[in-house]
Amino acid sequence: MTNVHAVVSRLGPAERAILEELAAGEAPFAVHRRAALSATLRTLEGGSGPPVVLLHGRGNAATTWFPLLPGLARRHRVIALDLPGFGHASSPPFAGGGFEDGLRFFADPVEELLLEMDLGDAALVGHSLGGLVAVEIALRRRARPRKLALIGAMGVGPVMTARSRAYFRAPPERLVRVLGAALFRRIHPPPPTPLGELLGALHRELYAVPDGRVAPVAAFNALFPAFGPVPHRLARLGEIDAETLVLWGERDDVFPAPIGIAAAAAIPRAALRVVPLGHAPHLENPALVLPELTAFLSPSADR
What we know:
This protein has helices spanning 13-23, 69-73, 99-116, 129-140, 162-169, 172-187, 196-207, 214-221, 257-266, 281-284, 286-297; strands spanning 29-35, 40-46, 51-55, 77-81, 123-127, 147-151, 243-249, 270-275. By secondary structure, it is an alpha/beta fold. An eight-stranded mixed β-sheet has the order 1-2-4-3-5-6-7-8, with helices on both faces. A hairpin with a 4-residue loop joins β1 and β2 (40-46). The longest helix has 18 residues, at 99-116. The radius of gyration is 17 Å and the shape is globular. The model has no long low-confidence stretch (mean pLDDT 92).
């Protein structure tokens, strides 16, 4: 593998504690580094059964899914991975460009890894940016995921709030270094759950990296303009042939709920679930979202 940006982040105390707890659980999780053609992605793997691949949102990592991992691993082989350039994954370089270039930056290594690991038919669960990656992989049809679960997915409609654009353009990696942990907490408060403080600490660790994650931040920014309609895949969602769950927070302040409602209407075999939460309902209330996901992913739910 050549011309790949190496990861520079290190395990912080919050992430280390999460990994230790997951390794000691009933269905132990192990960390692997998996090489695709264009990047090396860190994966967090545990459980047995039908495979489920988890794709996180912008700036996060495989460990962000920790509130859901033990529950999912009771019935599934779970593979959570770091998207290219985020978490502890390397990335291809990003030389600039628009929406399609930014999307290839994130989707190509993930698709390569799925095919390399013989996970082409695995169910895909994607949040925000990870949801867009899951949609793109399904549309390409090199991999044929048996199911898709899209949580507050990016790129499925033409609207993104002005507040979220400003936040991501700042970007958060710079904000956490400039503002410090206390002030950053005020603009990015942890979820009000028993695991919320640990999750908040994890987010701050993932953002506070020395180089600011130049390549993935630039690729992410290519996915949306500072103003006006954002590029999207709404017109192509009818091509998705996988059974799909569209799960959205009715208070989503990044991609408003009508985006999810329209996306669900466009996908032939989609079920819509709108919950009284924000942009990351699986982290804001895991106890509510986990049963929704397990019921949808269960083989008994196949038609």
